[in-house]
């Protein structure tokens, strides 16, 4: 079969077939009387083998080795190809994400594009100072896509930079709450905490609704940050989690302060006191937890809290009784 017909049947151009021949990948077995290349069926099978291996991403050099080296190990090459492909996909995915973000910023001209690119690069800088300046710039109105801000906030280790990023998100970046809420499902505990801390600083109703949902989150840290934020917003649904935090001695002082703030709202004090009293009766955590609950009652006004403290002043556990008696004395002296 002559080269022209081989090209037509194989889909490989005559020029490429000559290139393969120059590299020693496939040589026509014979020549016609006129000196034209003549390919046998075996030559054509080798051409198809070459094309199949090239389709996997092998270089022509690797193709030659695969076909001619008796010691060649296909599994090693396949593993290398998998690694290279993953790296290439990661690079292309990063580029695609960046392009989407630049498009989301709706640039009016190339200056806007370049400014957005510079800010995206700054957010990914190894320098904490550079990242902080980028976050502050975005808070000042520079067009940084909210997806980039959320990704930066969820991945930031430096507490100062993290604060700047949360502030930037709190400036009203549209779509921020829903994107942050996805971080609550991260398998990484630190990402979940960053997500809920960022949500806690967003003042809008959507963030409040998401924080309400977070009260049932399986991660106690997420529940705790959500409860503290909701307590500051006057959301009574946070009370049970705040009481749990006092029992567990997890940010218990902040939790008690949040309960006190909630109790100052009209009609709330007795219900909060009743919740504390119920946990006192069923805490099952020993004297330290009961003392913390008694101390939390100190800042809750109303007859329910007063009656509970008076009863605790006679508690069989001396440390709890002394704590309650001291609190009663202070309350009576006000």
TrEMBL record:
What PROSITE patterns does the record point to? Answer: HTH_MERR_1, HTH_MERR_2
Q: Does the keyword DNA-binding apply?
A: yes
Domain HTH merR-type, chain residue ranges per copy:
1-69
Q: Name one GO molecular function term.
A: DNA-binding transcription factor activity
Top-level taxon of the source organism? Bacteria
Swiss-Prot/TrEMBL keywords = DNA-binding
Q: What single Pfam family name could you report for this chain, choosing any that match? A: HEAT_2
* The protein's name: Transcriptional regulator
């Amino acid at each position: 079969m002559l080269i022209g017909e081989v090209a037509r049947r194989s889909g490989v151009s005559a020029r490429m077939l000559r290139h393969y021949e120059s590299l020693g990948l496939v040589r026509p077995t014979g020549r016609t009387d006129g000196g034209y290349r003549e390919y046998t069926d075996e030559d054509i099978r080798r051409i198809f083998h070459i094309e199949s291996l090239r389709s996997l991403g092998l270089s022509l050099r690797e193709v030659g080795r695969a076909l001619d080296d008796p010691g060649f190990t296909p599994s090693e090459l396949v593993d290398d190809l998998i690694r290279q492909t993953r790296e290439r996909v990661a690079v292309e995915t990063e580029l695609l994400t960046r392009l989407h973000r630049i498009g989301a910023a709706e640039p009016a001209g190339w200056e806007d594009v370049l400014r957005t690119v510079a800010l995206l690069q700054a957010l990914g800088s190894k320098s904490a100072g550079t990242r902080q300046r980028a976050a502050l710039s975005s808070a000042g109105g520079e067009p940084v896509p909210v997806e980039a801000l959320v990704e930066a906030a969820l991945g930031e280790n430096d507490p100062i930079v993290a604060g700047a990023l949360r502030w930037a998100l709190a400036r009203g970046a549209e779509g921020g709450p829903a994107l942050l809420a996805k971080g609550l499902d991260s398998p990484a505990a630190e990402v979940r905490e960053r997500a809920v801390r960022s949500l806690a600083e967003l003042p809008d109703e959507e963030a409040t609704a998401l924080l309400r949902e977070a009260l049932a989150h399986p991660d106690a840290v997420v529940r705790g940050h959500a409860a503290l934020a909701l307590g500051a917003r006057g959301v009574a649904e946070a009370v049970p989690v705040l009481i749990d935090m006092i029992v567990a001695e997890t940010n218990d002082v902040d939790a008690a302060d949040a309960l006190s703030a909630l109790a100052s709202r009209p009609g709330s004090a007795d219900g909060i006191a009743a919740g504390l009293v119920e946990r006192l009766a069923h805490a099952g955590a020993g004297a330290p937890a009961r003392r913390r609950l008694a101390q939390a009652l100190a800042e809750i006004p109303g007859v329910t809290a007063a009656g509970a403290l008076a009863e605790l002043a006679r508690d069989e556990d001396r440390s709890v009784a002394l704590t309650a008696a001291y609190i009663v004395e202070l309350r009576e002296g006000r």
